[in-house]
Structure formats: C-alpha cells, structure tokens
Amino acid sequence: MNSPDRPRQSLLLTLACLVILVAGLKASGSVLLPFLLSILIAVLAMPLVRWLQGMRIPGGLAVGLTVLLLLGLFMGFGVVVGTSVNDFSEKLPEHQAAVQAKLDQLGTEFAMPEVSEWLDAGAAMSFAGQVLNELVGVVSNLFLILLTTVFILLEAAGVPAKLRSAFPGDENPLQKASAVGRSVQAYLGVKTLMSLGTGACVSVLVGAMGLSHAVLWGLVAFLLNYVPSIGSIIAALPAVLLAVAELGPGSALLILMGYLVINTVVGNVIEPRVMGRKLGLSPLVVFLSLIFWGWVWGPAGMLLSVPLTVMVKIILEGQEGTRWIGVLLGPEAETRESRQP
C-alpha cells in the first residue's frame, strides 16, 4: 500500500469513528444524561465533602450529610418548579390568546398587520413551559442521580491512590484528573452563582412591574443563563410578550430594558471578570459546543455544553498527539502563552 494513502485512510477512519461515537451519544442520551449529571453534581459537591472531612467527620458520614443537603435542595427546587409549571400550564391558552390579540391590535394600529406572522406568540409563550418540563423530566430521575452521586463521592477519595497504582511513577493521569475536576468546579460554581443572581434580579424586576408568574420568569432566567451567548435573550422573550398583553407596550419596553441591563452587567461585566481566567475556551468554541450538544441531547445538552467541552479540552491537552486541538479550543491569550518558551 502506498504510503501517501495512509494519512488519507487514517483521516477517513477517524471521521468514521467520530460519526459512530456521535450516533451512539445521541441514541443513549436517556442513559448517559443522568450519569453525566451525577458526575457534575459529584464534582461540584466534592469541596463540601473534603471540608467536612477536614472537620474530622468520617468519609461515609461526610458523604451522607452532603447527599442529604443535595436532596433537600433538589426537593425544594422541585416543589417550586412543579408549582410554577402547573400554574403556568393551566393559564397558557389564556396567555397565548391574550398575547396574540395584543400583537394583532398593535399591528393594526401601526399599519403592520404582518407582525403576528413574524412572531409566533404561541410558540414563544410555551417555550418557558417546555424548558421547565425538561427540568421536571430530569428531576424524575432524582433517585438514580443521587444514588450514582453517592457512589461517585464514596469512590472519589480512593481515586488518587488507584491512579498511582495503575500508573506507577507517572503523575500525568492524576494531574489530568485533578485539572478536569478543578475546571468543572470553577465553571459550575461561578456559573451557578451568576445564574442565581440573574434569576433573583429578574424575579424582582418583573414582580415590581406587576407581571404575573414572577417566580417562573426568574426560574427560566436562572436555567437559561447556563446556555452561553443566547440563553439570556431567549429567556426574556416570553416574559416581554406577556408584558405586552398584561401591562402594555410601555411597561413591556421597561421590562426588556431591565433584562438588557441585568444580562449586560452580569454576563458582560461581572461574569467575565470572575470566570475569564477559569474557563479556557474561545467564544467561538463555546457557541459551537452549544449548537452541537443541543443537537445531540436537546435542552439538557445545551445546559451541559460548556462543562462537557471543558473536560474534552483538558483531556486533549494532556495527550501529546492531540495537544494542538486543545490549544485551538482555548482563547487567544492562552494560545499566546503556549508559544512562549
């Protein structure tokens, strides 16, 4: 076989493997998603377990206390989400009709009857319910997720010793595992705080303006803030549309401006300052990962897009043959640093 054909065959083989891998990920989403959520929750909860162990609490008891705390948070969050979804779902047809009627009225007043064709009010209004229904579907696997999290936390303490035994004299696997854990912890910790702040500000804003379902719009803003770049924009659309019907165009414009101020301050001022040096991904890679994982696993994949891509990047950087791919996934500043001797 001619040697010039080998690189071409190697490339075709790699592409074929990628197609098979993506098809497998797409087909096994119902099994993999709870497992991935368990891993992310365990990574995020690990600092609390270590802190409790530092307080001389036995490892098993520390894991049990952490899981009880997580269970309480999940149950409280589930009650709030379930109540909001039920209330909104009952009134959704009424809201859709009111919004559509108001858009038709405004289109007639401003000689723009096609405004109702540009914007599907029904789809926009139901989007908030779809996002929360997706979350309810994830919470329905709560027992499986928490059980898997318990086993991961119990095993995590012994992982360094296992890696040292499996790779004697080689600290690289341990360093890579630690790097993945630190990066995901940094991202999830900061992103969760920023999302909580965004959701709280949105709830206060729409509640002060008198818009119904203030808690719902705060939850939608909290969840979609995990979706990079476009999540905050999507979160504002149904609330602004409902404000047009309930409060009028003037109040809806004020709510839209409030969303813009909140997202600008949190997303473009506070979050980049806090997260900029902790999340080594270029903006283009973040956006493309959002599209890819959203296509593979839907809204849940969009929420997990950045943590999954961070883990892939760190793993690629740890291998000599794929390090160049990891560098290309990083931001420009990181690329400049890699060129320095």
How would you describe this structure in keywords?
341 residues; mainly alpha; 0% strand; disordered C terminus
Briefly say what this structure is.
By secondary structure, the protein is mainly α.
Explain what this protein looks like in three dimensions.
The chain has 341 residues and is an all-alpha fold. The chain folds into two domains: 30-279, no CATH class; 280-341, no CATH class. Helix content is 84%, strand content 0%. Mean pLDDT is 75; it is low at 335-341.
Q: What's the topology here?
A:
Elements: H1 5-27, H2 29-54, H3 59-109, H4 115-118, H5 121-139, H6 142-156, H7 159-166, H8 172-209, H9 214-224, H10 231-246, H11 249-275, H12 283-317, H13 323-329, H14 332-339
Helix pairs in contact: 2-3, 2-6, 2-12, 3-5, 3-6, 3-10, 5-10, 8-9, 8-11, 8-12, 9-10, 10-11, 12-13
Low-confidence stretches: 335-341
% residues in beta strands: under 5%
Helix content: over 70%
Termini separation comes to 40 Å
Encode the helix/strand succession as letters. HHHHHHHHHHHHHH
Number of strands: 0
Radius of gyration of CA atoms, rounded to a whole number: 23 Å
Category by helix and strand content = mainly alpha
Specify the biggest β-sheet: none
Shape estimate: globular
Global mean pLDDT: 75
Q: How many distinct helices? A: 14
List the domain count as a whole number.
2
